[in-house]
Specification:
- It is built from eight helices and 14 strands.
- The protein is an alpha+beta fold and about 260 residues long.
- A seven-stranded mixed sheet has the order 3-4-5-6-7-8-9, with helices on both faces. A five-stranded mixed sheet has the order 11-10-12-14-13, with helices on both faces. A two-stranded antiparallel ribbon has the order 1-2.
């Protein structure tokens, strides 16, 4: 099925949808779902646009998105997995670190992945077995193997502030031993930064499947790996603790900092 998808058409749909990010009135319409958890009219409008266009083009493929009731989705069959705005809090604050993230999954495995940053005009995409690309140019993870020379991005799991003490203890140890750490607020963009070698590793607890479904494939096709904190290869769990990196740095993160293996 994934070989039958028109990659260029999907990219065009995503780019058109992301134009909604610039609508200040829609950005200003905010609903609070929970502590540090927001949805804007942009999230809803991008989701509706993407669902309508993808369903019209590929009516046989299911559709899952962050702001939908996904209880009827059968994960063992093909399904689009969308995060309409990864980095909603960033969008609200005009931080310009938000993206549309779209994956085509089946049975917990991603076969297509697209992540688009409308501010930088960077379109990342991958097809299983075909490599990863940034604006159609091949990308690869960093080859750095020394933590002392590595830049690591971290996530703070802002919806789960009760984890702060545990999370920041890990970050403090890591900060002392890597070249520096970053915290940006978009899991999707952190994952593609790993994929194109801008950073060596990334980890965050309690990610939802739409946060990492596309980035998981893009990192792997760029020569890296994405795992859960217990060392298992990431495989589409609805909510999970996720770590990514080139394979050497990933193993060091797991064994020496996350202390999972």
């Amino acid at each position: 099925m994934h070989h039958q998808i028109d990659i260029e058409l999907v990219k065009e749909i995503i780019v058109e949808a992301a134009e909604i990010f610039a609508n200040k009135e829609s950005v200003a319409k905010i609903i609070t779902k929970g502590r540090a958890d927001f949805v804007t009219a942009v999230d809803i409008q991008v989701q509706q646009f993407m669902q309508e266009r993808l369903t019209a083009e590929y009516p046989q493929i299911q559709f899952m998105s962050e702001e939908l009731d996904n209880s009827a989705v059968n994960p063992e069959d093909y399904v689009w997995v969308l995060d309409p705005v990864d980095g909603t809090t960033n969008l609200i604050h005009d931080y310009k670190r938000s993206a549309v993230s779209l994956a085509l999954m089946k049975g917990g495995e991603s076969y297509l992945g697209f992540i688009y940053n409308p501010y930088s005009k960077e379109m990342f995409h991958a097809m299983k077995g075909q490599g990863s690309f940034l604006n159609d140019e091949p990308i690869h993870v960093s080859e750095e193997e020394d933590m002392a020379n590595s830049l690591i991005t971290v996530g703070t799991a802002p919806y789960y502030k009760e984890l702060a003490k545990e999370n920041f203890a890990i970050m403090e140890r890591l900060y002392a031993e890597c070249v520096d750490i970053r915290r940006t607020g978009s899991a999707a963009l952190d994952l593609v930064d790993v994929a194109c070698g801008r950073i060596e590793g990334y980890f965050e607890k309690c990610l939802k499947i739409w946060d990492y479904a596309a980035g998981m494939l893009i990192v792997r096709e760029a020569g890296g790996e994405v795992c859960y904190f217990d060392g298992r290869m990431a495989a589409g769990e609805p909510i999970a603790d996720v770590v990514a990196g080139n394979k050497v740095i990933l193993e060091k993160l797991l064994k020496e900092y996350l202390e999972c293996l």
